[in-house]
Amino acid sequence: MNVQMVCLADQYISPVNAMFPGSVHDAYILRNSSIPYVMGQLQKHRVWLLGDSGYPNLPWLLTPVRNPRTRAEERYNEAHGRTRRVIECTFGLLKARFRCLHMTGGSLFYSPRKVCQIIIACSMLHNLALRRQVPFLQEDGPDDGVVAAVEPVDSDEEEAEEEDIDNRDSIIQQYFQ
């Protein structure tokens, strides 16, 4: 399954999309989700999502600069990477808390629909555990090598609309000069 999650800075997961097979590109899942509509509405509040290089650069979705040419672009990429670690840690915590989601816990030998339901249920239980401040009781902690590695995928940045790149450039100029 190719699962797309959005998490907040405090590791709460919202929303989660687990209905596409692993062969589907991340950008396709994004285009076919409610996220573009919701983020379009939130854009007036200057709210952005951060995505890896597998996503296109959009006015509300900030991706790394592929080949940074200035120190400001390098600083932006560094800040982007540090901030994106939250989702990586969230994946690690989710997989450590619910071992069925991690490769070492086995495989989910169920129908794709059932696997999607399990992933969504685990995400909801994760949020509930955070809300109720349930301690994580694994001896080695959530970062015992469980963190999911996200492989960068060639993005369609070259095909992105000029205004989208201008949006990221204006953020770099405003905050990273």
UniProtKB/TrEMBL annotation:
One of its GO terms (cellular component) is nucleus. Keywords: Hydrolase, Metal-binding, Nuclease, Nucleus. One of its GO terms (molecular function) is metal ion binding. Residues 1-127 form the DDE Tnp4 domain. Residues 153-166 have a biased composition (Acidic residues). InterPro entries: HARBI1-like, HARBI1_dom. Residues 142-177 are annotated as: Disordered. Its cofactor is a divalent metal cation. It is found in: Nucleus. It comes from the Eukaryota. Belongs to the HARBI1 family. This is DDE Tnp4 domain-containing protein.
